[in-house]
Amino acid sequence: MSDLNNETTAEETIVEESAKTKKAIDPSLQGFQLFYENNKKAVQYIGGGFLLLVVAIVYYKLYYLPEQEKLASNEMYWAQNYFEKDSFAIALNGGKSVMSPSGQKQMMGFLQIAEEYGSTKQGSLAHYCAGICLLRTGKFNEAIEHLKQFNLDDEIVAPIAVGAIGDCYLELKNNDDAINYYLKAADKSRNSFTAPLYLKKAAFVYELKSQFTQAVEVFERIKKEYNRTDEGKDADKEIARLKALGNL
């Protein structure tokens, strides 16, 4: 019985000492200060996690990503060299032995660059180049997959990527999607180089579908918005031809 009383007394003593050592919360505290005092451990834990997240983001953006961008750019040099020579299979798949500053090596193709460096701008560009290679070699569905992964907002390349998807759908006899992507390409960047070109392609597919009214409407848009381009200068002639074909 004496042992039980001693044990109880010891437990009570620990609780009392703990209560004494615990800092009393100032009753005048309000708002965040009061919340912090009541939840100090949780706030410190969350704050530490947030700090680690910030450090990770800074490292990724300032150190890791630029280094990946540099490596991808070096690999793109060789693939683009073969792309410009219309050696699409080599540009796409790589494998050729090339001399780099660090010695002899096997070059990467656009497919491997896009896979390994997909988070970089060069990796996105590799998806575009891979899509064009696949389009040129008749692999239209694969080309569409890669072209849709190109996500840079370049004034010229971005609409060409969208328009190339339209070309793929046209080759696949999917005329509705071809028109949709040609119109998207025209609206992607309303410059006088790509926009009237893709509007003209959309009009061409409307004509294939014998939808002459829609084709005329597209040429009227070209005439109105891009009258100084070659497509704009030919618009009246095309409108007259389409009206005759469609008895409009």
Concise structural overview:
This protein has 13 helices and two strands, in the order H-H-H-H-E-E-H-H-H-H-H-H-H-H-H.
Q: Would you mind describing this structure in some detail?
A:
The longest helix has 45 residues, at 40-84. Helix 8 runs antiparallel to helix 9 (175-188). The chain has 248 residues and is mostly helical. Helices cover 73% and strands 5% of the residues.
Mean pLDDT: 81
Largest sheet: 2 strands, antiparallel
Strand content: 5-15%
Q: Enumerate how many helices there are, as a single number.
A: 13
Low-pLDDT runs of 5+ residues are 1-7, 17-22, 25-32
**Structural class determined from secondary elements:** mainly alpha
What's the SSE pattern?
HHHHEEHHHHHHHHH
Helix fraction, binned, reads over 70%
Q: Total number of β-strand segments?
A: 2
Report how far apart the termini are.
Answer: 112 Å
Numbering strands along the chain, what is their spatial order in the largest sheet? 1-2
* Overall form: elongated
C-alpha Rg (nearest Å)? 32 Å
